[in-house]
Write a structure and sequence with these properties.
This protein is 0% helix and 58% strand. The chain has 88 residues and is an all-beta fold. The strands form 2 sheets. The protein has a 4-stranded antiparallel β-sheet with strand order 1-8-3-6, with no helix packed on it. The termini are close together.
């Protein structure tokens, strides 16, 4: 099994398709207090939150998810959130 994780930095309010296809979300590190919510979605389209939601104004830190996704990993950030998504 490959334990190498990738990191995707997101530094603005945007929709980011981090990965297409199945994979594993290890954690999300919030580098600056989130200005808006961070939606975590298992899909390649849409905005229905089905994996998790980090609330607006969540403090800096690493939030572990350690979960699999099937269709893809899509992150929607509100405000000027600065996060790093750790996945494979």
């Amino acid at each position: 099994m490959n334990d190498d994780y990738l990191v995707k930095y997101i530094g603005s309010a945007t929709t980011t398709q981090v990965k297409t296809g199945s994979g594993h979300l290890r954690a999300i590190t919030v580098g600056t207090t989130a200005a808006g919510t961070v939606s975590i979605i298992d899909n390649t389209t849409g905005s229905t939150v089905n994996m998790g939601l980090l609330k607006a104004s969540i403090a800096e830190g690493t939030y572990e998810f350690d979960c699999h996704f099937a269709a893809g990993l899509r992150i929607i950030t509100g405000g000027a959130s600065k996060i790093s998504v750790i996945y494979r």
